[in-house]
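Contributing new records

If you add data, match the layout below exactly. Sequence lines come first and carry their own label; structure lines follow with theirs. Keep one chain per record. Anything else will be rejected by the validation script.
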Amino acid sequence: MRILLDTHILLWASTNQLPAKAKEYLKDSDKVLFFSVVSLWEIEIKNRLKRKDFDVDINELYYKLCNSGYKELSVESTHVLYLQELPEIHKDPFDRIMVAQALSEKMPFLTADKVISDYPGSIIYVGR
């Protein structure tokens, strides 16, 4: 099963700080974990804004993810067009495009963001 991970899930996974519920969900070996290029963009922007929760070396994170078997998901026009289908639940453009990616690719989206869990479709909320 393919799964797209939200940005904070990626950050926590890279530092072994995943919430217990996320660890439990991800432990099955049949899961293929994806990260969106949008997450890298979000981390870089928020890092430059001095957000403490995004204080990470983006190059190191990228290579760590790739070397750990994570798959990269680029943004395609179909993902952008899918934004029209989404209700106006979340205002963060990074989160909205990642939800659109996951839903248009028919893969679950694993998140710790309670607001995102209100979207219809296969959103898996793991809390913090």
